[in-house]
Write a structure and sequence with these properties.
Layout: H1 2-6, H2 36-60, E1 64-71, H3 77-84, E2 93-97, H4 103-106, H5 112-115, E3 124-128, H6 137-140, H7 142-147, H8 159-176, E4 179-187, H9 190-202, H10 212-218, H11 221-235, E5 242-246, H12 250-266, H13 277-292
Parallel strand pairs: 1-3, 1-4, 2-3, 4-5
Helix pairs in contact: 2-12, 3-12
The structure holds adenosine-5'-triphosphate and magnesium ion.
Amino acid sequence: MAKARKELTKPFLVPEGKGFNLGKIDPDETLGFRSKEKAEDLLAEGVKRLTELQDKLYAQDHWALLLIFQAMDAAGKDSTIEHVMSGVNPQGCQVFSFKGPSAEELDHDFLWRTSRCLPERGRIGIFNRSYYEEVLVVRVHPAFLAKQKIPRKLVGKDIWKERFEDINAYERYLTRNGVAIRKFFLHVSKEEQKRRFLARLAEPDKNWKFSAADLGERDHWEAYMEAYEDMIQHTSTRHAPWLVVPADHKWFTRLVVAQAVIEALESLDLAYPVVSEEQQAELLACKKKLEAEK
Ligand code: ATP
Ligand code: MG
């Protein structure tokens, strides 16, 4: 079984360098998995492995893991995070969602608000949307860029290229400080998004998830896909790679993301702290003292 899990990430991992084409990855892909049931067994196994690894990450307290999720609406970010992280200790995990920036946030550089939410050593930090919105929604809607208070002479035709460079440098800096990074684009098709929107409109329990603004963004689908493709091509690096995860089948998305998180943790030299001889002697003394109590 573990072998089957190992083959799940490679097709979706974007190598560093030019030439990435979003069209190469089919949102409907399931790599031959036909049924949800089989995938669920494998996911349960993955979640168990993740629990073990997170325990070590937390105990060792040296590395941090940052997981970034980006996607169009209804691609399943929330439910993927919920399922994949279902086995982890909440004390060792933090989730932050980033919406449109506040007035205070607009008064700072674009990496400021997310920097304040970076995971501490020993933790897994999840960004539900992130600074990548700065080269996505802000690129698709020039009005957002106009609202940012950047000195005008610094906003030129190379702004997106400059942001890619700054993000890459920032992520390299984080990696060199012990923050491992994995980035996920949940790749849903426009047809599947329509089905999910219609389901949200049809089922009263799902109505709350629907927002008319989401339809507005859907109208810009092509522009978003172009922005995603350019962003992934320029910011998938060896140290902080993007995975483009097919998202038309939620059970498959979860499986791939869980496996990628496992592989990220396995690539770190995680180990429980070793108790020194001196500490062992102290533990023994404590044991004796407890046993001697009346
Ligand atoms: P859900 O719909 O599941 O609650 P969501 O992440 O879509 O989750 P919303 O409140 O619907 O949350 O949307 C947040 C919106 O904020 C998105 O449209 C996103 O593009 C926008 N946003 C995030 N960061 C920025 C930014 N830096 N500048 C402008 N808009 C941003
Ligand atoms: Mg939304």
